[in-house]
Amino acid sequence: MSDIALKDQLSGHRVEGPLVPTTELAIAKHISTAPLKEGESQGYDSDGSTGLRGYLRLFQVSRVIAMLSIYLYLDQLDLHIKMQNKQKRERLAKAIRLTRAAYYGEKLWGIKLWFFQLFLKASRRLLLGRETNREKIQEKQAVWLKEKLITLGPTFIKIGQSMGTRADLLPLPFVKELGTLVDQVPPFPNDVAFAIIERELGKKISEVYKEFEIEPVAAASLGQVYRARLYSGEEVAVKVQRPNLEDLIKGDIVILKKVARFAERFPQLNENADWAGMLREFDVTIHEEMDYVAEGRNADRFRENFKNWSNIHVPAIYWAESTSRVLTMDFIHGTKVTDLEEQRLRNIDPAKVNRLLIKTYLKQLLEDGFFHADPHPGNLLVTPDGRLAFFDFGMVGRIPPALQAKMIDAFFHVVGKDPAGIAQDLIDLDFLKPGTPHSTVKPVVEKMFEFHFNLKLKDINFKELTYDLADVMYDYPFRLPSNFTYIMRALMTLEGIGIITDPEFNFFETAKPYAKEFMLRREGKDFRKIFVDKLMGRDEGGKIDWDRTWKLAKMAFKTVLNTG
Fold first, then answer.
1. Rounded to an integer, what distance in angstroms lies between the CA atom of residue 7 and that of residue 11?
2. Domain end among 364, 397, 430
3. Which structural domain, as residue segments, surrounds residue 484?
4. What counts of helices (H) and strands (E) characterise the chain?
5. How large is the greatest C-alpha to C-alpha distance in the chain, in angstroms?
6. Residue 8 CB: number of other CB atoms within 10 A?
7. Can you give the pTM of this predicted structure?
């Protein structure tokens, strides 16, 4: 769940109380006179990690990470033992060519390794159980992990949400459980929130807002939201960041960097992922999400991208009443995209809303290269006049043109039921771990997709396909590129919304005509540029791919005849 998810208030079922006039008497009693001291409650000093509570938090974080690492290592123990035994044979072969002492030394090392493996097998039996009940135990471990992440707070809730898309790192039960992770953080005190607003805006609340609802309408891991009214008459949502959040995040990042440096001593822990690289990416992402000015700019950019779409609405940002920690925007009334009964009462067709949602995401992914990365039902509203409203742009994704072209190829290889093409797409999109021979990949992917491609396109379920791919990615040398984390999360969330909205919904079937439209528009534009460059003699880097051009022409012809 994102930080401006207005929950029941946005679903149309909250009983809205009257906005309270912001007389000094009404607000003053809710504002503490004690000054806010940054970082006071977290136990972090200037470097973000020292102090008694800092060391205690280091222990708590390290414990969770260590237990997760043990679970994952034991889950793939057979593979690790196989590699250890291979290494043992190679070492013994080298020792034979050296001295008798070296040979017997390796024999002794082999005995120690045997006892160590015996200990690991016993530990696996104790912690993971037998093969017959392995999945149930993993489900319990996944619940444990989710609860621990919630306990550790905002930083780790966000990390858990990202891990919920990392099928290359975690077994399927973990992926499913973390995929349901939502912010479960109680609101912070109103007096603290009001003090932050006044300090950030440099004015009393009564000088900025004519009316202000005393209690928040929603609270999440990074902030909470209040309903208010400006003196100019607009009803607004006021999003205020949690106190000391930057210090808390900074301290947690320092701790995680220490853990990552320690993990680098054990190469086997880094087989499936570049943990240090992921941490750097998370550091950038979380700081961007904490910057409400950046969020406001993202909203403005999204609104500009859809300025010609009359059925899409993005709330306006009131910049005079906004800072990096306070964001004031239009308050949106409407129903959640998954509230089918309420939509029907308003004569709105949920299936049409869902098709519109899919079309907007294809435009975002394949045309704009800029997309809303957290499209859960709390961030999408259907307004009373039937428009689809997007809000909360703290988490966005960006896709460069080269990646867009590869994604288009991959989409049509899936639609065209081309396993060999998909295998090549996974290679081109960097889904392979470094050093993996490409020859070992294609047969695995082709075999995995055989079952799905024997189905009709309308029967292919994106989430089931992704979960099947999860097992392959976890057991074989695949990994999810960091630039696909948000894309996969968005697509899986969209399909979940679609299935709720329309039981007959199929992502690929729904997306196919729109994807063709965007592909023709984009590729046709690129082709025209290359062709004109050729005619004008601008040959540098302007070679025309005639095979691709022929495929594009055939697709256009089928689209015109409506037979594609």
1. 6
2. 397
3. 399-561
4. 22, 11
5. 91
6. 13
7. 0.71
Q: Give the SS3 label for residue 272.
A: coil
Indicate if 291 belongs to the active site.
no
Nearest CA to 167 out of 468, 378, 382, 368 is that of 468
Contact 379, 392 (CB under 8 A): yes
CB under 8 A, 24+ apart: contacts of 86-89: 88/113
User: Which of 324-333, 427-436, 537-546 is least confident?
Assistant: 537-546
Based on the domain organization, do 385 and 430 belong to the same domain?
Answer: no
Asked if 316 and 217 sit in the same domain, the reply is yes
Structural domain contains residue 23 = yes
Domain boundary pick from 372, 397, 422: 397
CB 283 within 8 A of CB 482: no
Say yes or no: 371 and 404 in one domain.
no
**pLDDT tens digits, residue range 482-513?**
667 778 778 777 877 777 777 677 777 777 77
Q: Which residues contact 20 (CB under 8 A, 6 or more apart)?
A: 26, 27, 211, 212, 213, 214
Task: From the candidates 374, 392, 425, 502, give the one annotated as an active-site residue.
Answer: 374
* 211 close to 19: Cβ distance less than 8 angstroms: yes
Give residue 213's identity as a one-letter amino acid code: E
What is the dihedral sign for C-alpha 275, 280, 281, 285? positive
